[in-house]
Write a structure and sequence with these properties.
α1 (3-14) packs antiparallel against α2. The protein is built from 4 helices and no strands. The chain is globular and about 25 Å long. It is mainly alpha-helical. The chain has helices spanning 3-14, 19-32, 37-44, 48-61. It has one domain (3-61): Arc Repressor Mutant, subunit A (Orthogonal Bundle).
């Protein structure tokens, strides 16, 4: 992970972002520190598939991939 992305994640984890964005950023930071998805799932109380999905989303789209998406619906 480059310094720019690490800085973005740290800002997401500590500043005005939604609680879910902070949790997602924390998960990615843990991953970058070498935590395994199974350990992260236990620590964050997420399902293992959820951890893997957020990591995949981040790898594909950076910080935009770990923010909650707005869905149209009715």
């Amino acid at each position: 992970m480059n310094d720019h992305r690490a800085k973005q994640l740290n800002e997401m984890n500590t500043k005005r972002h939604l609680p879910s964005h902070r949790r997602h950023a924390l998960g990615i930071l843990l991953s970058s520190c070498g935590y395994l998805p199974a350990d992260m799932a236990q620590l964050l109380q997420w399902h293992l598939d959820t951890v893997r999905r957020w990591i995949d989303n981040f790898n594909a789209s950076g910080t935009n991939g770990i923010t909650d998406r707005q869905y149209e619906g009715g």
